[in-house]
Amino acid sequence: MNSTFRPDNSALIVVDMLNDFIDGSMACLNAKEAVRETAAFIDRNTSSSGNDEEGIFGQFPVMFICDHHPSGHCSFTEQGGPWPVHCVMNTRGSAIHDLLMPYVTEELTFYKGCDKAREQYSGWEGTNHAGQTVGEVLELLDIDDVIVCGIATEFCVKATAEDLLGAGKKVSVLEKALAYVSEEGHAAAMAEMKGRGMAII
Ligand SMILES: [Zn+2]
User: Fold this and answer.
1) How many Å lie between the centroid of ligand 1 and the Cα of residue 171?
2) What is the domain-level CATH number for residue 190?
3) How far is the CA of 9 from the centre of ligand 1 (A)?
C-alpha cells in the first residue's frame, strides 16, 4: 500500500465529489476526509511540475465526474426512484467541492445523469461540454492507467471503476479518498473491486 505517488502516465478520476454528497441531501460517510485526501494526492503529484503551459494535457490529468440531474429526475423518490433529490444542475448541491475547484478544467469535467429518464451511476457514460466521453479523452491522452476515487464507493465509484476495467484500463482505487453510504456497503464493494483485479492504493 502506497498512496503517496501515482503510477507513471496515469490519470486521476474523481467521481461525484459534489456538495450534495458531502454535506447536502445525500451526505456520505468519510466525505470531507475523502475530499482532503484527494486534494493532497493531487498536490503531491503535481507540485514538482508547476508548468501551466502543459495545461490539461500536463503530466497528471485530473478528470471530474459529476452527477448532474434535471429537476424531476427518475432517480428521485418523488419520481419513484431510490434517492432523495440531489445534484440538480445549477444548484450548489451539484457543484464540485470548493477545495477541488483549483484542479477543475472544463475539458476534463464529465456530466452524467443529465437525461431525466435515465439513471447513470458510471462516469464512463458521462460526457464533457464538447461531447467527449472519458474513454475518448483517455484515448487522446494515451493513458491506460487510471486511479479512481470519489463518492460513493458502493455505487458510482464501483460502477465507474468496473467500466474502466472492462474497457481494458489498469485501475487503482485510492482507498483513503473514498466516501460511502454505509460501512458495510463500502467494505463489500472494496472486496469486490479487489477481487476483480483492481489495485487498492
Ligand atoms: Zn444521481
Assistant:
1) 23
2) 3.40.50.850
3) 30
Report the side by side order of strands in the sheet with 145-151: 109-112, 62-67, 10-15, 145-151, 170-179, 199-200
184 backbone dihedrals φ, ψ, rounded to 5°: -65, -45
Those residues whose beta carbon sits under 5 angstroms from the ion ligand 1 are: 67, 113
Q: Which domain holds residue 100?
A: 10-200
**Residues 6+ positions from 168 with CB-CB distance below 8 Å:** 144
What domain count does the chain have?
A: 1
> 3-state DSSP call for residue 130?
coil
pTM of the model: 0.93
Q: What is the whole-number distance in angstroms between the Cα of residue 182 and the centre of ligand 1?
A: 17
How far apart CA 3 and CA 201 sit, in angstroms, is: 5
pLDDT tens digits for range 173-182: 999 999 999 9
